[in-house]
Design goal:
Layout: H1 29-41, H2 49-68, H3 71-87, H4 92-113, H5 116-129, H6 141-159, H7 162-175, H8 184-204, H9 207-223, H10 231-249, H11 252-267, H12 276-294, H13 297-313, H14 321-339, H15 342-357, H16 366-384, H17 387-402, H18 411-429, H19 432-448, H20 454-474, H21 477-493, H22 501-519, H23 522-537, H24 543-559, H25 565-581, H26 586-593, H27 604-614, H28 618-628, H29 631-637, H30 644-649, H31 651-668, H32 695-718, H33 732-735, E1 744-748, E2 755-759, E3 766-769, H34 774-791, H35 797-824, E4 832-837, H36 862-865, E5 867-870, H37 874-881, E6 895-899, H38 908-919, E7 924-928, H39 934-940, E8 946-950, E9 952-954, E10 964-966, E11 972-974, H40 975-980, E12 988-992, H41 1011-1018, E13 1022-1026, H42 1032-1046, H43 1059-1072, H44 1078-1082, E14 1084-1088
């Protein structure tokens, strides 16, 4: 949506001055009114002096209105002047003067209260006045003509009548001949004439109007001295025209010229100069337009920065405040669209609401404020799926349309905006009435704009989408044919290099696919796939827009078994990582990947792998899963790439990589500060929060700078012999090393097909097929278990029953087939295996799948047959085995115990003291009570390769990086704070706290965002966590069994590598105890080496 500059003095016609001439301001106006009314009451009704007294009474009311702003006084003044005219005065000049006063009073009422019906009278009266002998009344004809121009301009803005702008141009061409060239008056009229040409272009779309406007603006600027106080205004107006032409033609020279003009003007103005606001407002519009055209995030950030600065300079009550709020709102919504920043969306909505309050009914720019708020609420619906947002958007759209009658220049865009929301409502409700109404609106809009106008692209694009919907509903060939025609026209109209080209190509591709399904013509299919591929490979569109095309390409190619399917998946996975990496912080990246508007992309890695498996390309399937899953962890892990080999070849290059990557990691793992605070309802609009401390913009700029530097260093490293694959996607031959300690079982869950792959070191991948209903059954299991756990407390019989049923079904689906195949492969019982589940499988206790049948008829679970560990990805497991352990190589293991007892955890003291006795006090540091602060714990972690937490674990649904250990005084050691730690000598972490390996319900199970994964990422090779809440006494019992097993052969030989077996021993002891429910022992899981 375009920036607006409606509030600027671009149409800077002189406004009404006080019409009072006969009232003595030193006297009390009320006393004077009493005196005039008394005098009038003594005169007969038809007395000739009553006309003059009526004039004087009107003048008094006008004077009082200026002081009190009471509309009743203004109305009385208008009626008084009208009465004086109707009665007539003996002195003709006085009649002319009264007529002029009446007209100015009407103009004041229109300007202050937006009384639309006054405008017609004002224009009629000024036209009549211009033909009278004004000189005899001391009135300058030039002033009357200027006010007539002002009124014509206002009526055009309100009603959009082309005749008004044409009359205005003719009038100003006449007026400018009455003023000496080179004077301020001449410049003001020339500026207004140039603006009138621009407004005419908005209405007609004829390029000749643009040429006229730019010509007048450039001539005006050439004649204006650099230090002239009005020069910033003239610069802003020329910039607005250049930006508009750029929007239409896409000529980057225009937008560069506009930015240069603004910057030159800013350089001449002091920081507090009153005209600086206008230039900043214009510059913000320039950068926003460049962003819309090019998709460049840096231009968007500049637009936000300049718009914020302009808004800060806007005085309270300024007429342009609404325009400034709307402009900033548009840019913030653009940031939300790119990065998924919900706080930016909410701030944008707050700004739109504030702008709407500044534009009450009757305000000439109310429709723009309504459209902006409708646009933002539509976006919020796409994120939240709350129907009240969509309904609100439609209602606002209808109101804005009602304010733009036929002939109004903004009517086409209001028709389009309403149709956008209607199309979304159809998508969600299936109401064909929305489509029919939308098509009707869009046909009307298409007839109101010239084919080359930028608005035509938006209108024809949406018209094609609506016709496509109707074709799917009714099957009329006319609709699909016309939709394709419109999509082709849009692509022909769009300038080369436009950021929205991917969306245009995607729509045409979809239409051609429907045509292929209708006709069977392979040419339609081939063109559809070619267009989708072009949409993905476009270097101009945003990663998000390209991903939409990519999903389309993969779906079409796969459904038709096209030869490009694997290529489509590869490119889409690469794009997904690029889109996520745009965010400056890991929390912003998570917000993007968890956004509802990209729900359709979350299954992409699993779908890609399923196709590769279908093609018997098992190794590529594993590479695809690795490339597309756990993206947040892998992105941060890449910054901690081991450099030992590189350091031996080029130490300075390794040091340079380390320095930049550490600085980049500091930004990525920084706490995401949300600058915006919702402005309470009823707050004064001049106090609206505008995010003065925009930390996101600062982080984004620094992240972009460092990323550029790191890319350059990586290229230099890749140029070294032997380092050609440095920082590239990990090939299977290297991923396979994850299975050096035992097989890794990958369970891929996809709607297309689900499969189990067993990765062995230096052996071919083994494939285990699954039932055709595997996906549906697993999805149901995950949902049922999650909902039951939320509804019932610990150790409920209902949950125990559902958990038992879940494990039995998991045994049939996963446990039994995996155990059987491992036996066939010669993997002995009690060997270690690693489980790598995908999608919602990651929330299920696969390690306890069972009972699994055997020849002994003994009731056994998968973890009885094999020693089970989990890993989020193969690269995470490889990293757990490859860290430098020089700091703990002696064999003596020091243990840090973090205990935080409270009323609900009375057993923590016994638990931690019991561990100390088992391990030996000389090897233990125990932090408890007052000492358990996040800072103290973090400070002690590097000193101890082992750590044991005994405290509350806190899960934060939707905000996984805020999940935490609850410590002293209600302080929190968060997942994000742990992830920042770099602990190269860390070995084992036992997290005896609730929810430490539980996935938050944020729609991103494949990101594996829990405390256990964070400890593993920070450096711990092996981590023990819990899949849900735990019973307090289990912490004491399980830790006793675990550490007894770990130190059974003495502290000197205790090793983290024994932790998985020790956990299995401990859980088997726990489950052997009388009265221990299924959920208590199933709860504990092992991650890592």
């Amino acid at each position: 949506m375009a920036h607006i500059n409606h509030g600027a003095p671009a149409a800077g016609y002189p406004k009404s001055q006080s019409s009072i001439q006969q009232v003595d301001p030193s006297n009390d106006v009320n006393s004077q009114l009493d005196r005039w009314h008394t005098q009038a009451s003594t005169l007969p009704f038809r007395h000739p002096d009553r006309a003059e007294i009526a004039h004087d009474i009107a003048t008094c009311h006008m004077f009082r209105y200026k002081a009190t702003r009471q509309k009743g006084d203004l109305d009385q003044a208008i009626m008084g002047y009208a009465e004086a005219l109707l009665r007539g005065m003996d002195h003709p000049p006085m009649n002319i003067l009264t007529f002029e006063h009446l007209t100015r009073a009407l103009l004041t009422r229109f300007n202050d209260f937006g009384a639309r019906e006054d405008l017609d009278h004002i224009i009629s009266y000024y036209r009549h006045l211009s033909n009278l002998p004004l000189g005899v009344a001391g009135i300058k004809r030039l002033n009357v003509l200027n006010r007539l121009a002002d009124a014509l301009h206002s009526r055009f803005e309100v009603g959009g009548r082309l005749e008004d702008i044409e009359d205005l141009i003719l009038l100003l061409r006449h007026v400018i001949t009455m003023v000496p060239p080179g004077t301020d008056g001449y410049r003001l009229i020339a500026n207004n004439l140039a603006n009138a040409w621009r407004r005419k272009y908005d209405h007609t779309g004829e390029s000749e109007e643009f040429t006229e406007a730019i010509s007048h603006h450039r001539a005006l600027l050439t004649s204006c001295p650099l230090d002239h106080p009005s020069r910033p205004l003239y610069v802003s107006n020329l910039v607005e025209v250049l930006t508009s032409r750029f929007t239409r033609s896409g000529d980057l020279n225009d937008v560069q010229d506009a930015a240069t003009l603004c910057q030159e003007s800013l350089d001449l103005l002091d920081k507090e100069h009153p005209e600086r606001m206008w230039v900043l407002m214009s510059l913000g519009g320039v950068y926003h337009s460049r962003f819309v055209r090019t998709g460049d995030p840096e231009s968007l950030e500049k637009a936000i920065s300049r718009s914020r600065e302009a808004l800060l300079l806007c005085p309270p009550g300024h007429k342009s405040k609404a325009s400034l709020l709307i402009n900033l709102g548009f840019s913030l919504m653009g940031r939300f669209e790119i990065f998924g920043r919900v706080d930016c969306m909410e701030e944008g909505i707050s700004l739109y609401r504030a702008a709407l309050r500044l534009c009450p009914p009757g305000h000439p720019h109310r429709q723009e404020s309504l459209r902006g708020l409708a646009y933002a609420m539509h976006f919020r619906f796409l994120w939240t799926h709350r129907m009240e947002d969509l309904k609100g958007s439609i209602n606002l759209g209808r109101e804005s349309l009602s304010l733009t009658p036929p002939g109004h220049p903004m009517r086409p865009m209001m028709l389009w905006s309403l149709s956008v929301s209607l199309e979304t409502q159809y998508t969600w409700t299936g109401d064909m009435g929305c489509i029919e109404e939308g098509i009707e609106h869009l046909y009307e809009a298409s007839k109101l704009v010239k084919s080359g106008h930028p608005r035509a692209r938006h209108i024809l694009q949406l018209l094609g989408v609506n016709l496509l919907h109707r074709f799917r509903h009714r099957g009329a060939d006319k609709d699909i044919t016309e939709a394709i025609k419109h999509f082709r026209n849009v692509i022909a109209l769009i300038p080369e290099g436009h950021s929205k080209i991917s969306t245009m190509l995607y729509n045409l591709s979809s239409a051609l696919l429907y045509m292929f399904s209708r006709t069977g013509d392979v040419e339609h299919l081939e063109e559809s796939i070619a267009l989708s591929r072009s949409a993905v490979e476009s270097p101009f569109s945003s990663a998000r827009d390209r991903l939409i095309g990519a999903k389309n390409w993969t779906a079409i190619a796969r459904d038709t078994r096209h030869s490009s399917t694997l290529t489509a998946y590869r490119k889409t996975l690469s794009l997904l990582q690029r889109a996520i990496d745009l965010g400056p912080t890991v929390q912003t990246r998570h917000e993007y990947i968890s956004g509802r508007d990209i729900d359709h992309l979350r299954s992409l890695p699993m779908d890609a792998a399923s196709y590769a498996i279908e093609s018997r390309a098992f190794e590529e399937a594993i590479e695809m899963l690795e490339q597309g899953r756990a993206l947040l962890w892998s992105g941060m892990r890449s910054l901690r790439t081991p450099l030992d080999h590189l350091r031996g070849v080029d130490k300075s290059l390794a040091d340079e990589f380390t320095e930049i990557s550490q600085a980049l990691e500091a930004i990525i793992t920084a706490t995401d500060v949300r600058d915006f605070v919702q402005t309470p309802a009823g707050t004064n609009d001049d106090d609206v929060t505008i995010g003065r401390n925009d930390t996101f913009a600062r982080d984004l700029a620094e992240k972009r700078r460092l990323s550029g530097e790191l890319d350059e260093v990586v290229l230099r490293i890749q140029a070294l012999p032997g380092f050609e694959n440095f920082w590239r996607p990990i090939p299977f031959r290297h991923l396979q090393t994850a299975a050096m300690g035992g097989p890794v079982v990958i369970i891929n869950l996809s709607e297309y097909r689900s499969d189990i792959l067993i990765v062995r070191f230096n052996q071919p991948v083994v494939h285990i097929p699954t039932p055709t209903n595997f996906f549906d059954r697993v999805t149901k299991l995950a949902y049922q278990l999650s909902e039951t756990r939320k509804s019932y407390r610990l150790e409920s019989k209902k949950y125990d029953r559902i958990l038992r049923q879940t494990l039995e079904e998991l045994s049939e689906l996963v446990g039994q087939p995996v155990a059987n195949r491992l036996m066939e492969l010669g993997i002995p019982e009690h060997s270690r295996i690693w489980l790598c589940p995908t999608s919602v499988l990651a929330s299920l206790p696969i390690h306890a799948a069972g009972p699994i049948s055997s020849h002994t008829n003994v009731k056994r679970y998968l973890c009885d047959i094999y020693v089970c560990s989990y890993t989020p990805s193969l690269s995470a497991l490889i990293a757990s085995r490859s860290r430098n352990l020089s700091g703990s190589a002696s064999g003596q293991r020091s243990l840090l115990i973090v205990g935080q007892p409270d009323e609900s955890l009375p057993g923590v003291d016994s638990e931690t003291r019991g561990i100390e006795c088992l391990v030996g006090s000389g090897s233990v540091t125990r932090i408890a009570s007052e000492a358990t602060t996040p800072e103290n714990v973090i400070a002690h972690l590097p000193m101890h390769p082992w750590v044991h937490f005994a405290c509350h674990g806190v899960l934060q649904p939707g905000r996984p990086f805020e999940s935490s250990f609850l410590l002293q005084h209600n302080t929190h050691l968060t997942l994000l704070r742990i992830a920042k730690s770099h602990l190269p000598t860390a070995e084992l972490a036992f997290l005896a706290a609730c929810h430490t390996a539980e996935l938050a319900e944020d729609g991103t199970p494949d990101e594996v965002l829990h405390l256990t994964a964070a400890m593993q990422f920070s450096g711990f090779r092996s981590v023990i966590g819990t899949m849900w809440a735990m019973v307090d006494e289990d912490g004491q019992d399980l830790s006793e069994y675990f550490y007894s097993k770990m130190f059974a052969a003495g502290a000197q030989v205790a090793s983290y590598e024994k932790s998985a077996r020790a956990l299995r021993h401990a859980t088997r002891r726990l489950r052997a105890e009388k009265g221990v429910s299924l959920e208590r022992w199933v709860n504990f899981v092992h991650y890592g080496a």
